[in-house]
Predict the structure.
Amino acid sequence: MILILFSSIFIIPVLMGWGKIMENMWGILFQGISGKILSGILGISLIWTIISFFIPLNINVEAPSILLGLFSFFKNKLYQEFHQFSKKDFIVLSVSSLTVIFAGSFYPYILDHFGYYIPTLKWLTEYGLIKGISNVDLTLGQMSVWHIFQAGFSNFSDPFLRINSILLIIYGMYSIERKNWIHLCFLPILLLFSQSPSPDLPVIIFSLIILNEVIAGNRNTTLLFAYSVFVFTIKPTMIWLPILVFLSSVFIFRSHFKQLLLGSSILFLFFVKNIWTFGYPVFPIAIGDIGVSWKPDPEILKISSQFAIMKTYDMQYTYEEIQKFSTADYIKNWFSLEGIKSKINILFVLSLIIFIVFAWIKKKKLITLICISLLIKSIVVLAFSAQYRFFTDVFFVVFFILFYEYFDQKKSIIVFSALSLFFISILSFPGIIQKYIPSFRVGSFMTGFEKEQIYKPSTYEYQQYNSFKVGNLKFNVSHHYPYSFDTPLPAITPAYLFDDVKAGIFPQLSDKNDIKKGFIPKKMTSEEKEEAQKVINNIKNTDK
């Protein structure tokens, strides 16, 4: 807890300083501390994304970035802006921040933390963006902009990777500054994302902030659209947000095309980044092929697509069984999955129906545009992989619109207090959720409170691995463990190795002497197949 507090006190002024620099360049998104911080996050994320094409995001990048941010912070006397908080506001901010810091000090439990987030950060801090990295592990092809942002602060400022906790503190600050108290109702639920650098948290927070600004009448289309595209680059399932801002700029604000150029530039950078790491403009969709040599093998993409379809049904059916579904079966089985997933799916559809009826009754142009945007997003998600984690944000948006005018300060603080107590109890005593909601699998990975986390946030260490070589690639595989979160690079997860061997391909270095030159997929020779099979046999024997 103490170290997260120190990181917050250190990083927030840095972001404010960068925000001031960005505001001098492209204007003000909205006034206040949180406005500067959001501009700083956007600016520094874009700069680090460009830098990461050429060099790793190590201390040599972090140190000058911190110094420049702090210089701007003190030169412009931005610390004076904290005086705006009244005594009552300061108490609310302090309580919400301490709640966040306590929740953020627990052990990470989201499986993607070990299989996706940490490996991504390791590659970014040790090598930067690697061409064709998706050939080593397909999930690495995402290289979310949020992980680029986290990686840049992970060497010194935030070594325990609690940037999401810091973002939650900033979100509480925004709610208090803008006097939009309903945001405090969401904060306790989002505590569940505070232990890991999950991109789900920033996209929910940023989308609610941008949505709030649009509703409040913020007409800075240039930055609203730019930030909505930025949210899309963090997680493309948030496609509804740039669609909403674009539609609002056309049908409500009557904006000029020039005001969309900054956002369009960010989108172009996103496409370039994805082509560099994955081979196609939008991960994980194999659309927009420009013929780069490092794109993943079609068989690997096919396996990934089949897996995504099975995940839609919570792995309760095989791919072959799903292929035999009729249209009615697709719908019925999705609504009748065993466990909590079916309840979430039903609630999702009900939420959309309620919102459609609400929009029809209100007959307000903005609410109608929000409804259209959410429907477009929902159709896209349902068409590709209807996993509940891809439409979680819809619940927040629908609740936000329905109760926007209902929650004042008093009601919001009551809800915040009750929900904080509830979710902190779940984190501290995970046996509750493990007993009553056993189908909520991530709950089984929660470990509860340990006194050591009062000083520093809890983290895992494993550091057991074996080294192998296939073709020109020497790599490491975690020993008797499915993820490679602290395995030295280059590391390949066992599951992906099996997929490679099944497909008859294996990642190889473009230049055997330089990892920075990237990876390509290569059909294995008979000798390489023997080498790969020995690796598979070794892993299987270890797992016995």
